Every structure is written in structure tokens, then in C-alpha cells.
Amino acid sequence: MRSSATNRANKATSTQLDDCILTSRELDGARLHFAVKTSSELSDVERERIWNIFESNMHLFYTTSSFGWDPRSKKEEMFHSHARLVLCERCDDTPSGSESIPSESRIVAYTIFRFEREAKQDVVYCYELQVTEESRGLGVGKLLMGSLFDIGSRWRMNNVTLTVFKVANSAASAFYKSLGFNLDPSSPGYAEEDDWQDEELDCDYVILSKSIP
Q1: What pLDDT does residue 194 have?
Q2: At 37, which helix (H) or strand (E)?
Q3: Whole-number pLDDT of residue 103
Q4: What is the side-by-side order of every strand in the sheet holding 121-131?
Q5: What is the Cα–Cα distance from 177 to 200, expressed in whole angstroms?
Q6: Are 38 and 83 in contact (CB under 8 A)?
Q7: What local confidence, expressed as pLDDT, does residue 96 receive?
Q8: Would you say 137 and 117 are in contact if contact means Cβ atoms under 8 Å apart?
Q9: Per-residue pLDDT, 203
Q10: Could you tell me whether strands 121-131 and 205-211 are parallel, antiparallel, or unpaired per DSSP bridges?
Q11: What is the Cα gyration radius of the chain?
């Protein structure tokens, strides 16, 4: 059963969620614009761009994992009716005389999340955090995760929760650990908390969470 906090959050419009975050930032000379959209507000071209980034980043991890590569079910998850996205577009000035870059091609990173009730907690569940290869190292991923905490705080959620491949995607595991995420009690391997990246654990993923201040 959903709590009143989760119910209220799920009724929030993208404009209301957009008001929770900083929509413009500049990192190392790159001008970035952030915007919240519901899955139903995405254009077909935006959906294709979002999927292409995911496929480029994650295809190998999924084909070698217990989940397997199943584009149809993954797209249903990513573009679910309850899914919200924070999109990051790069808005650098176009050189004089050159053609403008279509806005959908400017999407260089995003996070996909839902408001859910997990183990009697109201959580912002991060389903995806993806950054294009050419935009890594700018701190975009950290800003996107920060936006989830800002949204969660405004809508009185308890935690940000996510799933990550434990060993195969060690860079992501290290990133989340650097942000203060810990093994969630619902995670496989919770009893082995000190060794949650141990290859000997049967499950190839873990569930991490961090409390929202």
C-alpha cells in the first residue's frame, strides 16, 4: 500500500518537480540545462536518443548478467507511465556559420526514477543514471544524483535507492560509494555488508540506498 507521501509525489507535475532542481549549470566551460519530464512528455526522437545512450553504455553489462539483454522489457521499464526523467542537455554555443544542433541530440545524460514504497519507506528509486562517454568527467552524474535528493527532500521521501551491477560495473559501484550510498537491507548479500563487491557472492547485483537529509 502506498503512503500519502508517495501518492502525493506521484501526482506531481513535471513543472512542480522542475522547481526542485537547478536547471542551469556550467561545468568546465560546458553549459548544461536540466529539465524534468514524465515519460509521456518525451518525443519519439528523445526516446530514441535516451535508448541509444543506454544501449551504448549498458549492452555488454546486460548480455553477461543474470538479467540478460531484453530490449522490449527494458524499454517498458524505462518508459513506464510512472517514470520521471531528469534530462541534461549540453547548450554550448554553436560555432558561427555552422548548423544548429537539434535539441534532442543535445541530451548527454539523464536519470530515470520513480516514487515508490519499499519496506515501509518512501523512496526515490533511481532506475537509470546514464552519461555519454564524451560528457564523463564533468561531474554531470553527481549533479543528476543531487537532483534526485533535491526532489526527494521537497516531496518528503526517505531514501534514494538504486540497483547496480556489483562487479561488472565496478566504476559505477565506486561512484555511488563515493556519494555515501550503502548496501540496503533489501539487497542480496546484505549479511556480507563489508564485502558487497565480493565476486564470490552468487548474485551479480546489489541494491544501494542513502537517506535523504
Answers
A1: 52
A2: strand 30-38
A3: 53
A4: 24-27, 30-38, 84-90, 107-118, 121-131, 159-165, 205-211, 182-183
A5: 20
A6: yes
A7: 41
A8: no
A9: 86
A10: unpaired
A11: 17
Instruction: Return contacts of 57-64, CB within 8 angstroms, 24+ apart.
Output: 57/130, 57/131, 57/133, 58/130, 61/165, 61/168, 61/169, 64/168
| CA angle 122–151–103, rounded 5-degree value | 130
Spatial distance between the Cα atoms of 189 and 205, rounded to a whole number of angstroms: 9
End-to-end CA distance of the chain: 24
Around Cβ 146, how many Cβ atoms within 10 Å?
Answer: 15
**Which DSSP category does 199 fall into?**
T
Q: What is the pLDDT of residue 105?
A: 67
Binned average pLDDT, 10 residues per bin, the chain of 213 residues: 84 97 92 96 95 97 93 98 96 51 74 95 97 94 98 98 86 94 90 51 87 95
Q: With DSSP H G I counted as helix, E B as strand and the rest as coil, what are the percentages for the chain, rounded to 5?
A: 40, 30, 35
Tell which residue, 108, 213, 207, 98, has the closest CA to residue 161: 207
